[in-house]
Design brief:
Length: 442
């Protein structure tokens, strides 16, 4: 019984049936044991001597042909057909490079867009030396909040006043190139007529009082310096609740401070003043921008850097005024009113007060509320429009009237000669009248 591997008989004679199919001349031999001069069969496996199925009596040997002299034998390369093929790296590298470039470009574009919108954009130019000679100044885009702050900085000043047994610190802003500055009356009320103005670069100038109007809480001072950068005025009648704003000033003696917020409300009527002192009336712009003591007189500006108000009042939970601080309720005098008063102070040293020609004594009754007229001046605007004693005023140009303060503050906001529409109730009848406001006789 054989499995085909034993292809010689025990005496060494090869059998015909078991001669390997590839038997041929053995390397280095011309005759094999099966015949004289004929080709000798050669081993067709490489480890015949150690084959466990080999006939131990068969003296077969494997003869390997020696390589030519001087030629080194190198192993034949072997390829595993089942091994995973290695992909070409060039296409992968190209795809990776293109993806990285696209991702970088997209990231840079988004980063620039967000930075420009928030004011931290990389589109600015760096001015100044990096070698220690001067600090570098990053110039922001003019339409960002940071750009607005940089543009307004030279126009905002700190106002220091000594007098009345103490000193006070407030703010102001330049309105003409030759040195006129607007501030609050309550900032300079203790002044003997002089103040010190500190600019954003730290330089100082003495200032003289031009005029003030305690009831509207506005004042104008002047410094002897030319070539100043005046602010740009906005229109306080064109702003809306939700518009972004910046407040500038020197809160708690911290000069060159800028805070941000929005317009929280319009025509917020307020009366303020100490008992026995001057009562001030405001139809104010309310904002949640952080404002503290020392911000008084500084500008409130819109997102384009135009002044829309004069920071004047804060509302606080503190009983003591000296302990009052920001709780997100600050109020500014509308710039349309401030411009008019300031111009009159510059031109004449005093401001006209707008009146309606009627005195109110209390609130109306019923669901509509309103304020009741106690006395009508026979020669005043109210009488000219047909209003009478006892009429209940409900609205002034669409603004609801709930307290006597509302009527006074709103009337003061308008210039003399302005025409306003008044809704009123007489008995059970509801009527309207057009009133031409006037300046008082003072």
């Amino acid at each position: 019984m054989t499995d085909g591997w034993n292809w010689r008989q025990p005496d060494g004679t090869p059998t015909t049936a078991n001669v390997p199919p590839h038997a041929g001349p053995s390397a280095g031999s011309s005759a094999g044991p099966g015949g004289v001069g004929g080709p000798a069969p050669s081993a067709w496996w490489s480890d015949a001597l150690h084959d466990p199925w080999r006939n131990p009596q068969t003296p077969t040997a494997v003869v390997v042909q020696a390589p030519p002299l001087g030629v080194a034998m190198l192993p034949e390369p072997v390829t595993d057909p089942d091994a995973p093929r290695r992909r070409a790296t060039a296409p992968v590298f190209v795809v990776t490079l293109v993806t990285a470039l696209l991702a970088g470009a997209l990231g840079g574009a988004l980063g620039f867009a967000f930075a420009a919108r928030s004011g931290a954009g990389g589109s600015g130019t760096v001015l100044g030396s990096q070698g220690g000679e001067a600090p570098a100044v990053v110039q922001r885009r003019p339409d960002t909040l940071a750009g607005v702050a940089q543009r307004l900085a030279p126009s905002v000043v700190t106002v220091r006043v000594n007098g009345g047994g103490g000193s006070s610190v407030g703010s102001g802003f330049v309105v003409t190139a030759d040195g006129y500055v607007i501030t609050n009356d309550h900032v300079v009320e203790a002044s003997s007529g002089r103040a010190t103005v500190v600019f954003n670069d730290g330089s100082t100038e003495s200032a003289t009082l031009v005029g003030k109007d305690p009831e509207s809480d506005l004042a104008v001072i002047k410094v002897s310096r030319s070539g100043l950068t005046p602010v740009e005025f906005g229109d306080s009648e064109s702003i809306a609740v939700g518009d972004p704003v910046l407040a500038f000033g020197t809160p708690l003696a911290l000069a060159n401070t800028v805070t941000a917020g929005i317009v929280s409300a319009l025509d917020r009527t307020i009366s303020a003043g100490e008992p026995g002192g001057q009562v001030r009336y405001y139809a104010a712009i309310q904002t949640d921008a952080a404002v503290n003591q020392g911000n008084s007189g500084g500008p409130l500006v819109d997102g384009a850097g135009r002044v829309i108000g004069v920071n004047s009042v804060i509302k606080s939970l503190a009983v003591d005024e000296s302990a009052a601080g920001n709780i997100g309720l600050a109020f500014a005098i509308p710039i349309n009113q401030a411009k008019r008063v300031a111009q009159e102070l510059i031109d004449t040293g005093k401001a006209r007060r707008t009146v309606i020609g009627a005195q109110v004594s209390g609130v109306g009754v019923g669901q509509e509320g309103g304020v009741r007229i106690a006395v009508v001046d026979p020669a005043g605007p109210a009488a000219g429009a047909g209003l009478r004693n006892g009429d209940v005023l409900l609205r002034l140009d669409g603004r609801v009237l709930e307290e006597p303060t509302d009527l006074i503050a709103l009337v003061r906001k308008y210039p003399p000669g302005a025409v306003v529409t008044v809704e009123y109730r007489r008995g059970t009848d509801r009527q309207k009248a057009s009133v031409t406001l006037a300046a008082d006789a003072k």
